[in-house]
Each structure stands twice: as structure tokens, then as C-alpha cells.
């Protein structure tokens, strides 16, 4: 029996469905355990790996030719199901982060290292007794990693990550101070792209949304003033520069409500990196100084302060 068939036998023994015993699932398991064709199972490890690393290991050690664009296939056909079954865990980073990684859970590692050995039966019995509990433990761990956020008086959660932390600050700190009484019409999430998307109101206001349009990170609407706030949450890229303003104006050319363009940063240090690219007549908000705003053209507010 070769390593692929042995991996398939392992997956079958722990109760993975037949579709998750396919070759791609076997290669994923072998890559995460770092088991090559001639390795014994007791050599397994559980280091953190990207999907890119899994593909490279499979191609290098099992003579396959998976392309980089097959990452989503590995995720959907193997990793997603392994995660739900508590066979693996991820490191809690946003899925689009270059630092997002997976590894075998410690419990799976202990079991897999004993595969085809005299310790297997006892370890398998122990694993089987607690496996359902492990599924709940890892599911709860994933849930705890999410950030609760109240949007339009509805309790939702953001995936973990600096970008979503800044979006949470925009909704909970910026909006009450500078967009009081506003409704959130749109906010994305690093995992669920359209966490909130009120297409009914957006279209009523005149938005022309296509699947190719990139919405601002947060869109707020103040009905009393008939103002729309377009807000970009910037941790590394994407401020309200002239090009971005034109993109949004094109998307909203039929919108008659007043348009306010805001770039949100975590701190003054990040703001300084982008200050020379920000468009005039836009606003800047810093989460570390939530009571204040910076306006990128002083003449609007020029005058003595009493």
C-alpha cells in the first residue's frame, strides 16, 4: 500500500466522508504531516503551512503538477472539511493574508504518528472518545477569535485582523461622533466580502453596482442630512487618492446625496505614510485620536476660533 492509499485509510478510519478521501485530500494530509513517500508515519510534524506550501510539497514529493490557481480547490475540497472535523486548525489570520496558515491539531498529530504501529489501536480509541468534543472545542476557539460588532443594532462578527479591527473602530467610534444617526449600507469582511450590503437603499440612492465595482470599505448614509460617507480603512493600501475618488464618483454618478470621502488610519504614523497621496477636499480620521478629524483643504474651515 503506497502513501496515498495509507492516507486514504487514515481519513476513512477517522470518519471523513468519501469525498474527503479523494487524492487531493490525501495529498493535503501528507503535506501537512510532511510525510514523503519513504517516510514512516511516526516522522509526522504539525508545523504551520500555507496552501502554497502544501501545493509545493505535493508537486515536489509526489510528482504532481498542481498549479498555483488550484489553491481554492485544496481549500474547498480538503482544508475546509478538515477544519470543521478538528483534524486541522488555522492561525486565525484573515484568509487573504499572506500569513494565513494551517496545521494538524495536536490530537491529530498524536494519532497520525501512531498510524500502522502497535500504539494505533489505543490512540485511535482515545481519539474517538473525544473527537466530537474536539470538534466543539475548535469551533468555539474559532468563534472566540471573531470580533463582535454592532451594525444597525444587529450583533455581527468580524473575522480577526487589523483591517477588520479598524473597520470596527469606524463603525463604533467614528460613526457616532461624525455621522450620528447614520445607517451602515455596506461593510465588507476579509472572509465574507459583503457582510452588510443594503442593495435596496443603495439602488434607491442611485448607485449602479456591478460585480466589477470595488465598494469602499464602509458606506454610511445619514438620512436627515442626505449625506453619504465613503470610508476606506487603510492599514497598508487604498487611501482616498484622486484615482479612487474618480472610481467612486463613476460608480455613484446618479447619486444626488452629498458625498463625503474619508480615509481612516489607525494612527498618525500610518497617516504620514500616505499624506502626499490623499486627495484634496477629503477627510482623515485616526482611530488613536477618535475625537478629531483632519480636513485636506483648510479654506473650508478657515477663520478665528472663539
Number of domains: 2
Instruction: Report how far the terminal alpha carbons are from each other.
Output: 85 Å
Order the strands across the largest sheet as they lie in space.
6-5-7-8-9-10-11
* Number of strand segments: 11
Chart the SSEs and their pairings:
Layout: H1 3-13, H2 23-33, H3 51-62, H4 71-84, E1 88-90, E2 102-104, H5 106-113, H6 120-145, E3 147-151, E4 154-158, H7 162-178, E5 183-187, E6 196-197, H8 199-205, E7 218-222, E8 227-234, H9 242-251, E9 258-265, H10 268-274, E10 283-286, E11 293-295
Parallel strand pairs: 8-9, 9-10
Antiparallel strand pairs: 1-2, 3-4, 5-6, 5-7, 7-8, 10-11
Helix pairs in contact: 1-2, 2-3, 2-4, 5-6
Explain what the structure shows:
This protein is α+β, with helices and mostly antiparallel strands. It folds into two domains: 3-145, Orthogonal Bundle (Arc Repressor Mutant, subunit A); 148-301, Trna Endonuclease, Chain: A, domain 1 (3-Layer(aba) Sandwich), CATH 3.40.1350. The chain contains ten helices and eleven strands. The chain has helices spanning 3-13, 23-33, 51-62, 71-84, 106-113, 120-145, 162-178, 199-205, 242-251, 268-274, and strands at residues 88-90, 102-104, 147-151, 154-158, 183-187, 196-197, 218-222, 227-234, 258-265, 283-286, 293-295. The strands form three sheets. It has a seven-stranded mixed beta sheet, with helices on both faces. It has a two-stranded antiparallel ribbon with strand order 1-2. The longest helix has 26 residues, at 120-145. The mean pLDDT is 88.
Amino acid at each position: 500500500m503506497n502513501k496515498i492509499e495509507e492516507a486514504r485509510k487514515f481519513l476513512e478510519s477517522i470518519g471523513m466522508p468519501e469525498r474527503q478521501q479523494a487524492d487531493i485530500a490525501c495529498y493535503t494530509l501528507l503535506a501537512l504531516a510532511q510525510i514523503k513517500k519513504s517516510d514512516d508515519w511516526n516522522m509526522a510534524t504539525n508545523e504551520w503551512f500555507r496552501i502554497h506550501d502544501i501545493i509545493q510539497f505535493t508537486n515536489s514529493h509526489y510528482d504532481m503538477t498542481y498549479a498555483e490557481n488550484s489553491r481554492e480547490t485544496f481549500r474547498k475540497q480538503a482544508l475546509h472539511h478538515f477544519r470543521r472535523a478538528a483534524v486541522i486548525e488555522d492561525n486565525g489570520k484573515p484568509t487573504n493574508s499572506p500569513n494565513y496558515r494551517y496545521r494538524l491539531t495536536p490530537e491529530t498529530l498524536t494519532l497520525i504518528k501512531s498510524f500502522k504501529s502497535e500504539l494505533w489501536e489505543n490512540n485511535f480509541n482515545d481519539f474517538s472518545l473525544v473527537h466530537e468534543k474536539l470538534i466543539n472545542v475548535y469551533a468555539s476557539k474559532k468563534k472566540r477569535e471573531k470580533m463582535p460588532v454592532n451594525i444597525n443594532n444587529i450583533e455581527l462578527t468580524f473575522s480577526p485582523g487589523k483591517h477588520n479591527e479598524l473597520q470596527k473602530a469606524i463603525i463604533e467610534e467614528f460613526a457616532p461622533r461624525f455621522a450620528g444617526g447614520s445607517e451602515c449600507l455596506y461593510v465588507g469582511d476579509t472572509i465574507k466580502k459583503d457582510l452588510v450590503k443594503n442593495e435596496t437603499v443603495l439602488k434607491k440612492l442611485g448607485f449602479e453596482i456591478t460585480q466589477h465595482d470595488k465598494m469602499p470599505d464602509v458606506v454610511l448614509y445619514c438620512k436627515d442630512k442626505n449625506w453619504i460617507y465613503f470610508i476606506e480603512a487603510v492599514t497598508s493600501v487604498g487611501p482616498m487618492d484622486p484615482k479612487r475618488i474618480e472610481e467612486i464618483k463613476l460608480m455613484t454618478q446618479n447619486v444626488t446625496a452629498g458625498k463625503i470621502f474619508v480615509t481612516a488610519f489607525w494612527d498618525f504614523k500610518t497617516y504620514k505614510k500616505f499624506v502626499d497621496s490623499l486627495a484634496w477636499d477629503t477627510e482623515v480620521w485616526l482611530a488613536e485620536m477618535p475625537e478629531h478629524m483632519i480636513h485636506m483643504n483648510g479654506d473650508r474651515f478657515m477663520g478665528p476660533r472663539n
